[in-house]
Design brief:
- By secondary structure, the protein is α/β, with parallel strands linked by helices.
- The protein has 2 domains: 280 residues, Aldehyde Dehydrogenase, Chain A, domain 1, CATH 3.40.605.10; 187 residues, 3-Layer(aba) Sandwich (Aldehyde Dehydrogenase, Chain A, domain 2), CATH 3.40.309.
- Helices cover 38% and strands 23% of the residues.
- The strands form 5 sheets. The protein has a 7-stranded mixed sheet with strand order 15-16-17-14-13-18-19, with helices on both faces.
- Strand 18, helix 13 and strand 19 form a beta-alpha-beta unit.
- It starts with a strand and ends with a strand.
């Protein structure tokens, strides 16, 4: 069995213990053993990053750009191999895994360019003979805590801007999927970046994550994960004066209006709700459908769902792989039962299934669930499930649909299916979400534009694109007497 160690100060450091990385498509398959760090590993990683920061923060922008470009090039060159690893440990299909790896490579190449595009301002003072310069500087050592559902793309979109703008990093990946993060760390380690600039500490969130959040040497925390954990991190960071960036939950609406193209609306809903096993923070879980199209839409979506093949994530022909873990599977199934107890009707799927590849291997497989006859106030329409579970809410028209779509504590992504320019324009302006999709799946965003939401979904500056500098830099205003 291959043992995978933590990366601290440019050295691979043995863990205090190791944990198996299991294949959710085949529970008898152990991918490898990965180090479980503790608070002393965090202490060592932060010390290394702190020592590396003075030189790295003022290093030449060309050297930083070259290193990030080299990382991106290796990721892209190995996208099939790394995509297979991602599908192996997380459970999304191999095609989706390859696509995610490619995105990670593109992110590093984008931020290789951002190293060379750093800019500031020179403005006159209101006082004669004085010049004013406004510049951006790195904030210091950044703690990055990433989730299991995008095990290489989300680390990439946090690591790349942090390094591009001159910060040093301690990464704590999700303990369910350490393999992709370890592979990324290995690529970064061999890129020529100085020792201590990037560090990887794997282990349990309550151990490693808490040690990062509480450490006085950490200047900022970027976290993607659950609402409860995120709010706790925010409170701790405010108390200690750390900069904080949170991406948390979603209960994303997909509105389907009477004038929508039925086939298009069904396909984008199926993609949004069920693909990647519904394990995307931008996935649609509330289908808000107007009266006239409701019966045809539900019938057509049921027919589309019947064609979805659930099976081994790396097998040819699989549309949807397994849920990531036993705990997640149990949560998904429990919400189906909660919805039924509240009066919803299970129109399709909703149960645990055997692998459809005929292999007979045990995995965390679930048939996508469609719940109809639901009301906006039901728990299934208020709480994030994070699985292949969608509910349908019937509304009278656009105005009610918009009100129901906005009636949530979350505000990450929202979709509208319509052929009306009037409604599309109004929805884009009045949807209380950070990202709006018209006639597109709610899940699926570009790497060069800002990512984030409103209300309970996000807190702090946006991620990705040029907006990433808002979090990973601090602004300095300097005055000079001529």
């Amino acid at each position: 069995m291959t043992m995978h160690n933590n990366l601290i100060n440019g050295q691979w450091v043995a863990g205090k213990s190791y944990a198996p990385n299991l294949n959710p498509s085949d529970l008898s398959d152990v991918i490898g053993e990965y180090a479980q760090g503790d608070a002393s590993d965090v202490e060592a990683a932060v010390a290394a990053a702190t020592a590396a920061f003075p030189a790295w923060s003022v290093s030449g922008i060309q050297a930083r750009s070259d290193a990030l470009d080299k990382i991106g090039s290796e990721i892209l060159a190995r996208k099939e191999e790394l995509g297979d690893l991602l599908a192996h440990e997380e459970g999304k299909t191999r095609a989706e895994g390859i696509g995610e790896v490619a995105r990670a490579g593109q992110i590093f190449k984008f931020f290789a360019g951002e190293c060379l595009r750093l800019s500031g301002e020179t403005v006159p003072s209101v006082r004669p003979g004085i010049g004013v310069e406004i510049t951006r500087e790195p904030i210091g050592v950044v703690g990055l805590i990433t989730p299991w559902n995008f095990p290489i793309a989300i680390p990439a979109w946090k690591i790349a801007p942090a390094l591009a703008f001159g910060n040093c990093v301690v990464l704590k990946p999700a303990d369910l999927v350490p393999g992709s993060a370890w592979a990324l760390a290995d690529i970064i380690h061999r890129s020529g970046i100085p020792a201590g600039v990037f560090n990887l500490v794997m282990g349990r969130g309550r151990v490693i994550g808490e040690a990062l959040v509480q450490h006085p040497g950490i200047a900022a925390i970027s976290f993607t994960g659950s609402v409860g954990v995120g709010r706790g991190i925010a409170a701790a960071c405010v108390a200690s004066g750390k900069k904080v960036q949170l991406e948390m939950g979603g209960k994303n609406p997909q509105v389907v209006l009477d004038d929508a193209d039925l086939n298009q609306a069904v396909e984008l809903s199926a993609q949004s709700c069920f693909y990647s096993t519904g394990q995307r923070c931008t996935a649609s879980s509330r289908l808000i459908v107007t009266d006239k199209i409701y019966p045809a839409f539900v019938e057509a979506l049921q027919e589309r769902m019947a064609k979805i093949k659930v099976g081994d994530a790396r097998a040819a022909g699989t549309d949807i792989g397994p849920v990531v873990s036993q705990a997640q599977l149990e949560q998904d199934l429990s919400y189906v039962e909660i919805a039924k107890a509240e009066g919803a009707r299970l129109a399709s799927g909703g149960g645990r299934v055997a692998c459809h590849t005929g292999s007979g291997k045990e995995g965390f497989f679930m048939q996508p669930a469609l719940l109809v006859d639901t009301e906006a106030g039901m728990r299934i329409n208020r709480e994030e499930v994070f699985g292949p579970v969608a509910s349908v809410i019937r509304v009278s028209g656009y105005e009610e649909a918009l009100a129901v779509a906005n009636d949530t504590e979350f505000g990450l992504s929202a979709g509208l299916a319509t052929t009306s320019l009037k409604y599309a324009t109004h929805f884009k302006r009045h949807s209380q979400a950070g990202m709006v999709m018209v006639n597109l799946p709610t899940a699926g965003v570009d790497y060069h534009v800002p990512f984030g939401g409103r209300k309970g979904s996000s807190y702090g500056p946006r991620e990705q694109g040029r907006y990433a500098q808002e979090f990973y830099t601090t602004v300095k205003t300097a005055y000079t007497l001529a």
